[in-house]
């Protein structure tokens, strides 16, 4: 059985040789967390489409099916698949970009199961996301859809295994009675035609991975060995990419530094449907935040910021104000992502408040601005998104009940909607009537919390702007947050099809 499990590069070589021999190679791909009758039928039908069947199994780090998933570690899942007689070869693969492995393997046939087959009264995620998946299918082969016994691993796991805390189980049970997947799909699709104007601080995030070598003999410091690094477009750039996966038109407005603009990297990192309007400050670089990370433990050791965080000068401010006065009314929603680094001035905000149709705000608390970038400097927002620390700082209430804190801030800034994310506590939201809603956490696997709040804000703000109810928006936000904490920093954005797949899985 072990001889059937190949490394990815070896599998590619094997497929090339098999095709040269005239063999028809069939590939199927998935999590394979449970081997149930539907999986067996799918495997058998897949094998009948060709001579050789290979199964690519998604690694643990890229499984986004809800809390507690996968049930079984990747090595066990690959071994279970390889033990099936009809499977010729199995391989563990990355799935950060869904179905990317198909581009490299180039099978003759890609076999997709119909566990998400459309039923008479219920549109399932398969039919709604197949077009999305085809975007990632770059091979020349054909797609085969097997039609076997319909079982869902997610449904079996949700119904018979305790993968959720009791609070989450009860919440999902009640929520699924109120909102069907079909309804949620429609509401998410409604966001596509929105025109979004996004303003905020652009940040380049660098992750430098190191290995600890020992204590210096000459100073009280720990010596680390550099291993590698990654660079991501963070801050407002990351938020723009999240929104661009939902909405067709996104206009980004931010300030770069003339010293080291990083403009080419930024433009290459943004999705094609994002239009950019850059303004430039002469007194500093484009903001860069370098985090140094213990490679083995995945723990952040320290951070260095390269920035000028004083407010922009009057001439740049005037340029931005003139631009906003000319353009702002062309957009359905204006979003402010204020990291407290000197971009959003009182005068710029006054233009947004006066001329925008709807606007939402996120004020970030970070190491460069603690205590100086509070939501209370703004007023009359349609939507506000904060984390617990940010809202407690604004209220000057360290220990008070969080529900009382959000009520106090909501009234003081006169917001229509406000949501506070509470980490392990999920989220709590409030509307203008003072009605609150709590939604539990949906994540059990946390790789990196950096950027999760940005993803939450990016998805929930358009939902409120279009009129979705508070409980539905909070649910969508928590689902997006659960996906975002599985991503290192801002390495990639949360995509709509990933959200729908996640929602479908937890509602079963």
Write a concise synopsis of the structure shown.
With 508 residues, the protein is of the alpha/beta class. The protein has helices at 8-20, 37-47, 74-82, 100-105, 125-135, 153-160, 166-178, 181-189, 236-244, 263-269, 314-327, 346-355, 388-395, 402-413, 452-465, 470-484, 496-507; strands at residues 25-30, 52-58, 89-93, 109-113, 142-146, 195-200, 202-215, 222-235, 249-257, 274-281, 287-294, 299-306, 333-338, 359-363, 383-387, 417-421, 427-431, 436-439.
Structural class: alpha/beta
Q: How far from one another are the termini?
A: 33 Å
What is the C-alpha radius of gyration, as a whole number of Å?
24 Å
The top level CATH class name of the largest domain = Alpha Beta
Largest sheet: 9 strands, mixed
User: Level of helix content?
Assistant: 25-40%
What is the count of distinct domains? 2
Which oligomeric state applies? Answer: single chain
Average pLDDT: 88
Looking at the overall shape, the CATH architecture of the largest domain is: 3-Layer(aba) Sandwich
Uncertain stretches: 115-130
* CATH topological fold name of the largest domain: UDP-N-acetylmuramoyl-L-alanine:D-glutamate ligase
Shape: globular
Written description of the protein model:
By secondary structure, this protein is of the alpha/beta class. The chain is 36% helix and 25% strand. The protein has helices spanning 8-20, 37-47, 74-82, 100-105, 125-135, 153-160, 166-178, 181-189, 236-244, 263-269, 314-327, 346-355, 388-395, 402-413, 452-465, 470-484, 496-507, and strands spanning 25-30, 52-58, 89-93, 109-113, 142-146, 195-200, 202-215, 222-235, 249-257, 274-281, 287-294, 299-306, 333-338, 359-363, 383-387, 417-421, 427-431, 436-439. Helix 11 runs parallel beside helix 12, helix 15 (452-465) packs antiparallel against helix 16 and helix 16 (470-484) crosses helix 17. The protein starts with 7 loop residues before the first helix and ends with a helix.
């Amino acid at each position: 059985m072990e001889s059937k499990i190949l490394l990815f590069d070896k599998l590619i070589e094997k497929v090339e040789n098999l095709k040269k021999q005239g063999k028809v190679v069939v590939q199927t791909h998935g999590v394979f967390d449970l081997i149930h009758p539907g999986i067996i039928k799918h495997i058998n039908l897949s094998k009948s489409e060709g001579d050789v069947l290979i199964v690519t199994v998604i690694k643990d780090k890229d499984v986004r099916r809800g809390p507690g998933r996968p049930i079984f570690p990747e090595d066990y899942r690959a071994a279970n698949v390889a033990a099936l007689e009809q499977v010729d070869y199995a391989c563990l693969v990355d799935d950060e970009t869904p179905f990317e492995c198909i581009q490299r393997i180039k099978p003759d046939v890609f076999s997709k199961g119909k566990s998400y087959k459309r039923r008479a009264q219920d549109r399932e995620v398969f039919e709604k996301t197949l077009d999305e998946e085809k975007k990632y299918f770059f091979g020349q082969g054909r797609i085969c859809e097997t039609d076997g016994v319909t079982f869902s691993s997610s449904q079996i796991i949700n119904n018979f295994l305790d993968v959720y805390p009791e609070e989450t189980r009860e919440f999902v049970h009640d929520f699924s009675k109120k909102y069907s997947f079909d309804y949620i799909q429609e509401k998410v699709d409604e966001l596509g035609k929105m025109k979004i104007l996004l303003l905020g601080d652009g940040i380049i995030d660098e992750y430098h991975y190191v290995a600890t070598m020992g204590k210096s003999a000459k100073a009280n410091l720990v010596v680390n060995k550099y291993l590698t690094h990654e660079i991501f477009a963070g801050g407002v750039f990351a938020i723009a990419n999240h929104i661009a996966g939902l909405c067709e038109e996104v206009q980004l407005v931010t300030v770069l530094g003339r010293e080291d603009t990083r403009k080419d990297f930024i433009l290459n990192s943004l999705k094609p449907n994002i239009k950019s309007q850059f303004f430039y400050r002469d007194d500093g670089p484009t903001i860069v935040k370098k985090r140094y990370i213990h490679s083995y433990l995945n723990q952040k050791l320290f951070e260095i910021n390269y920035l000028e965080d004083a407010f922009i000068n009057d001439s740049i401010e005037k340029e931005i104000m003139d631009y906003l006065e000319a353009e702002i009314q062309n957009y359905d929603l204006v979003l402010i992502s204020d990291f407290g680094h000197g971009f959003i001035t009182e005068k710029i905000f006054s233009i947004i408040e006066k001329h925008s149709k709807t606007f939402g705000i996120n004020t970030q608390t970070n190491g460069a601005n603690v205590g100086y970038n509070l939501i209370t400097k703004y007023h009359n927002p349609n939507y506000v998104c904060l984390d617990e620390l940010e809202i407690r700082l604004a209220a000057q209430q360290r220990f008070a009940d969080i529900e009382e804190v959000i009520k106090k801030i909501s009234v003081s800034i006169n917001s229509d909607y406000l949501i506070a994310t509470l980490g392990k506590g999920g989220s709590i939201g409030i509307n203008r009537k003072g009605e609150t809603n709590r939604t539990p956490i949906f994540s059990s696997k946390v790789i990196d919390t950096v950027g999760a709040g940005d993803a939450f804000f990016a998805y929930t703000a358009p939902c409120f702007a279009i009129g979705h109810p508070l409980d539905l928006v909070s649910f969508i936000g928590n689902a997006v947050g659960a996906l975002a904490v599985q991503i290192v920093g801002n390495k990639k954005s949360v995509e709509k099809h990933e959200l729908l797949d996640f929602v479908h899985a937890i509602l079963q």
